[in-house]
Amino acid sequence: MKYIIVIADGMADEPLKQLNGQTPVVEANTPNMDFIAKNGYTGYAKNVPDGMTPGSDVANT
Q1: φ, ψ (nearest 5 deg) of residue 23
Q2: pTM value?
Q3: CA of 14: how far to CAs of 4, 10, 23, 48, in Å?
Q4: What distance in Å separates the CA atoms of residue 61 and residue 56, rounded to the nearest whole number?
Q5: Backbone angle region of 25, left / alpha / beta, with phi > 0 → left and psi within -120 to 50 → alpha
Q6: Three-state SS across the chain?
Q7: pLDDT for 2-18, tens place per residue?
């Protein structure tokens, strides 16, 4: 079995006025990510310990 791990750090971004209040990822054309989400196994990992502020420095180490 093959695995791929995608760390979508910063992908959520912030809503932008130029995108009518949407985030870039909501407005993006993402056929490959859509395919993986529909056909693959997706999951969730809790990478930030309780009591710590979520951020790249904490979650991606």
Answers
A1: -90, 160
A2: 0.57
A3: 26, 9, 6, 20
A4: 8
A5: alpha
A6: CCCCCCCCCCCCCCCEHHHCCECHHHHCCCHHHHHHHHHCCCCCCCCCCCCCCCCHHHHCC
A7: 888 887 777 878 999 99
Measure the CA–CA gap between 49 and 30, rounded to whole angstroms.
30
For residue 7, what are the contacts with CB-CB under 8 A and spacing of at least 6? 60
Nearest CA among 9, 4, 17 for reference residue 48: 9
Under 8 Å between Cβ of 9 and 48: no
